[in-house]
Design goal:
It holds the Pfam family Glyco_hydro127M. Keywords: Signal. By secondary structure, the chain is of the alpha+beta class. The protein binds 2-acetamido-2-deoxy-beta-D-glucopyranose (NAG) (4 copies).
């Protein structure tokens, strides 16, 4: 009732806030247009694996995406209601970043169809001329994809931008009439996605519609779920939410994916409220989320996989608006650990839920998840929900596209997410800049960067918080300690060519986990025991590569480790390049060895490891086990019981 009341007030006062508005606050950093940053080295290969995997083939065989279904199809998922939009949003940047003509033509066809079928009211997609109720949300990911096409191919701006403005005018009138936001649907929780599109128009192509854009942003905020309250310490859930009474009577705000989406809401709001409280609240909410629900893989519990994708995107946006390095460190950890762990190495199968201690991936008996199906930790085409099948392609392209930023005055370039890249852009004063970063990071500690520039400028590179005794050597000079301020180290670049080498070592660290267990980290990577497995094909399809797979352990996994014994090993590839794919058993060059012994450790049902035993006694001889980067393990122990083996 209170929410309805504030909506009525807001609509009634429409002309007042439109006139008194002082526009949008600038972001701290801006990303570069899609295509200006390209993946290189192993990261390019990872996108090729994705292109050759499920993501790159959905358009050929997967009914929810394949063209024959989405033109005129009426399933709940196809069209712009979810499947088509998600797929488009991921495959637009995938196609551009690896310059794949097939994928680019598929996404172009999709864009053309949707825009060519915009009706006179402004509604677009296959849903025109139908009696379907009109809900706004499904169109939000489509608009993200359309924006990325406009950025990568400015010749299409003249077609895309007017279509978006026409849709905004329609959405504005729908919101004022109380239409477009279905109760129990996503539009009220994910309003921030539309706000971000409106801000892109405002920042880049306002075309005289500034007031309407701002008014629509405010309508969305005041009709949408109240994230400033959800993320307050007073209401934040500090444990599992199944048995808690939701104080807002809005259970969807505690849905894992929506929470990740909601992280973007307050910084998006801040840009038009100019209320510092919005930024402080999201910072507190971020800390609460990871304090109470965080996992060593970087992500937080609850619908982990899709939440992971959204947290990558949300964290990137938070960094761009706020500039706090904690967001960037977290995004990098999720990307290099939780994301690849939940896909097979060849990226033909994915899970819905992932576990830190995952001793099997199979149809679960009993099913421990109150809200998710028993099939949700199988690796397959669409375990549990089809949404991740169509949404998973956005993870890697997004990290690449957001890895370089500029300061708002466009004088400086910032290398945010570390990895191999090549970048080509024009900074302020027509400063033509290219950057090549040659590295195996996160499977290597050194990054060799070559910059060419037509003018002098200041270049920034992020130094992650876990780096100890990092050094930089510029133009062949002596290595000097890095001196980051707010997470960024400045390099003064002269016109011409500048080269520097960063060395960013890190100590092995352990993280305390429940029941006295520990998780092991070094730098951006989390390390786990990779349980030997066999695979059983559960479902075979006409597309032979799209199988559903059960994984079972074929070796003991009941190990406790001695934290004092942890030792880092590097086995760099002789060829200089990493194997392809890299995220599978036995492949990464970095490992950690640990003294260990087997202990009594039971199972819960036939699928899960019970909680790690506290203060266990060895039941087997002292041995040495190898811990591998978490993303390369598909069955694993990531949280270990602890033993003292120093006297054995
Ligand atoms: C809607 O249907 C009418 C009648 O079949 C057709 O003329 C019109 O082009 C259709 N509109 C769109 C946007 O597809
Ligand atoms: C800023 O946001 C806080 C928290 O939502 C709110 O209590 C306060 O009234 C807002 N300030 C202004 C000036 O709107
Ligand atoms: C960078 O982009 C500019 C403009 O598109 C182009 O002329 C130039 O050749 C590119 N440089 C490199 C090294 O790719
Ligand atoms: C996998 O290993 C388990 C445990 O050893 C065994 O019971 C099962 O039959 C094996 N499955 C396959 C497909 O080899």
């Amino acid at each position: 009732m209170a929410r309805l009341f504030s909506l009525a007030l807001l609509v009634g006062a429409g002309c007042v806030y439109a006139q008194s508005s002082s526009g949008l606050a600038p972001k701290k950093y801006e990303y570069l247009p899609l295509g200006a940053v390209k993946p290189a080295g192993w990261l390019y290969d990872q996108l090729i694996v994705q292109t050759n995997g499920l993501a790159g083939h959905e358009h050929d065989f997967y009914a929810l995406v394949a063209q024959s279904d989405w033109i005129g199809g009426d399933s709940d998922y196809s069209d712009l209601e979810e499947a088509g939009s998600y797929w488009f949003n991921g495959m637009v940047p995938n196609g551009v970043l690896v310059d794949d003509p097939t994928i680019k033509s598929q996404t172009q066809q999709f864009l053309d169809y949707v825009l060519d079928h915009q009706d006179e009211t402004g509604w677009f997609g296959p849903e025109v001329n139908t009696t379907k109720p009109r809900y706004l949300w499904g169109r939000y990911p489509f608009m993200f994809g359309a924006i990325q096409i406009a950025e990568s191919d400015p010749a299409q701006v003249g077609k895309i931008v007017p279509a978006l403005h026409k849709f905004v005018a329609l959405a504005n009138s729908m919101l004022k009439n109380g239409e477009g936001l279905n109760d129990g649907g996503w539009a009220k929780t994910r309003w921030e996605d539309f706000v971000i599109t409106l801000q892109w128009l405002y920042d880049n192509h306002p075309d005289g519609h500034e007031d309407l854009l701002l008014e629509t942003m405010k309508l969305l905020k005041w009709t949408g779920d109240p994230w400033e309250e959800v993320f307050s310490a007073q209401y934040f859930p500090t444990g599992p939410t199944e048995d808690l009474q939701n104080p807002f009577d809005l259970p969807l705000v505690w849905h894992g994916v929506n929470m990740a989406e909601g992280l973007k809401a307050l910084p998006a709001t801040y840009r038009f409220t100019h209320n510092q409280s919005d930024l402080d609240r999201v910072s507190e909410g971020w800390d609460l989320l990871f304090k109470y629900h965080g996992r060593p893989s970087g992500i937080y519990a609850a619908d982990e996989y899709l939440a992971g994708l959204e947290a990558i995107r949300g964290g990137s946006y938070l960094y761009q608006v706020i500039g706090d390095p904690k967001y960037a460190d977290r995004v990098e950890r999720i990307t290099y650990n939780a994301l690849p762990a939940t896909l097979t190495g060849d990226m033909w199968a994915r899970q819905y839920l992932q576990q830190q201690n995952q001793i099997a991936a199979k149809n679960m008996t009993p099913n421990p998840f109150p809200n998710d199906g028993s099939y949700s930790n199988v690796f397959g085409l669409e375990p549990n929900y089809p949404c991740c099948t169509v949404n998973h392609p956005q993870g890697w392209p997004n990290i690449v596209a957001n890895s370089f930023l500029t300061t708002p005055d466009k004088q400086s370039l910032v290398h945010l997410y570390l990895g191999p890249f090549s970048t080509n852009t024009t900074l302020a004063n027509d400063n033509q800049v290219t950057v090549n970063v040659d590295t195996l990071y996160p499977f290597g500690d050194t990054l060799a960067t070559t910059i060419t520039a037509s003018k002098d400028f200041t270049y920034y590179v992020r130094i992650p918080s876990w780096v100890t005794q990092g050094t930089i050597a510029v133009n062949g000079g002596a290595a000097q300690g890095v001196a980051p301020q707010n997470g960024l180290h400045a390099v003064q670049v002269k016109a011409g060519t500048t080269k520097f080498v960063l060395d960013l070592p890190a100590e092995i660290t352990t993280e305390a986990r429940p029941h006295g267990s520990i998780a092991v980290h070094r730098g951006p990577l989390h390390y786990a025991y990779d349980i030997a497995r066999n695979a059983t094909v559960l479902v075979q399809r006409a597309e032979a590569r799209a199988q559903d797979l059960e994984f079972d352990a074929t070796a003991p996994w009941q190990y406790a480790i001695d934290p004092s014994s942890l030792k880092f090993n590097n086995n760099p590839p002789a060829s200089g390049s990493l194997p392809s794919p890299i995220f599978d058993s036995g492949l990464p060059p970095y490992t950690i060895s640990a003294s260990a012994c087997q202990v009594e450790w039971g199972v819960a049902g036939d699928t899960f490891a019970a909680s790690p035993p506290e203060n266990p006694a060895c039941v087997g001889a002292k041995t040495t086990i190898t811990l591998w980067p978490f993303g390369a393990t598909k069955l694993r122990i990531g949280e270990f019981p602890v033993v003292d083996l120093s006297k054995q």
